[in-house]
Design goal:
The chain is an alpha/beta fold. Helix content is about 50%, strand content about 15%. Strands 2-1-3-4-5-6 form a six-stranded parallel beta sheet, with helices on both faces. Helix 7 (about 155-165) packs across helix 10 (about 205-215) and helix 8 (about 170-175) crosses helix 9. The radius of gyration is 18 Å and the shape is elongated. The termini are far apart. The relative contact order is 0.10.
Length: about 220
């Protein structure tokens, strides 16, 4: 896919360029701040923009740039990177959008497989959350209430793993279920949470995770 990169750390930027090239992606340009990214996207459209959260201008220029990109180019996916798994960064990301956006730790995407998987999921419309941060959120003690009260214990387990960013195959392995059983549980979750069926305008997996995080 076409990728735009905004990262003020020269060493990490060069490393990402190598990884993206090795994975077969086309880097349309690499810049060091949010203003330059906006200029780049004005001439070179991208499927996904990768941004460092803590880059110029300001201490959180990446977040502000991401909001500007989403407003100007809503079809461009966003991958925000940080050295730190901070809840307030995640909340800021969710304010920008809940589809075609991801928040990952820099150390976790330092490999072609994880980086490409993250970009593919974002490009497909998903919300991708750093698993350690998602796990911290979903495992906070809380009672089951609201729409989640309709779910069975197994469905809650499946939804928790969805919120941690697990694929259907990953969920099946964690819970010792068949892939078909996981698909049935997910279909039931969508139905019980009364999520919209129109896949062209709604990503039900994202909506299910947001419902879970909100209730917890």
């Amino acid at each position: 896919m076409r990728v735009a990169l905004a990262e003020d750390g020269a060493l990490f930027r060069e490393g990402l360029l190598l990884l993206l090239g090795a994975a077969g992606h086309q880097v349309v340009g690499s810049v060091a701040d949010g203003d330059a990214l906006m200029g780049l996207l004005g001439t070179e459209p991208a499927d996904v923009a990768i941004l460092d959260i803590r880059m110029p201008p300001g201490t959180e220029g990446g977040l502000r740039a991401a909001a500007r990109v989403r407003a100007a180019y809503p079809e461009t996916g966003l991958l925000l990177l940080s050295h730190y798994a901070e809840t307030h960064y995640l909340m800021r990301c969710l304010e920008i959008g809940t589809e075609r956006i991801g928040y990952r730790l820099k150390e976790r995407v330092a490999g072609t497989q994880v980086l490409s998987d993250t970009l593919d999921r974002i490009n497909a419309g998903e919300l991708v959350i750093e698993p350690s941060l998602a796990g911290r959120l979903v495992n906070r003690p809380a009672g089951v209430s609201g729409p989640l009260a309709l779910l069975s214990q197994r469905e809650l387990e499946v939804l928790r793993l969805m919120a941690e960013g697990r694929s259907n195959t990953g969920i099946a392995g964690m819970l010792s279920l068949s892939a078909k059983a996981v698909e049935k549980h997910i279909a039931s979750i969508f139905t019980k949470l009364d999520l919209p069926f129109d896949a062209t305008t709604h990503h039900r997996r994202v909506l299910a995770v947001l419902t879970y995080l909100g209730a917890r």
